[in-house]
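WARN no homologs supplied; continuing
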Amino acid sequence: PPVQAAMTAGIEALLALLARIAPGKTEAAREAKALSALTEMLGAMVLARSVGDPGLAAKILRAAEARILGG
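OK structure emitted
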């Protein structure tokens, strides 16, 4: 389906970008870190937008940010 093809291309391009800046000694390690970061960012965004409490939404986003940038 066209939507899946477009999503696949977009995600692959984003992963390639993230892998270029991700830490890691090998390409495989950088790709794994990029995939992990992307899934965490997306999950955090979905969760933050799903809750009705702005404070909780902010906590979710800050936790993901700290995890991605700090570890």
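The chain has a mean pLDDT of 95.
OK
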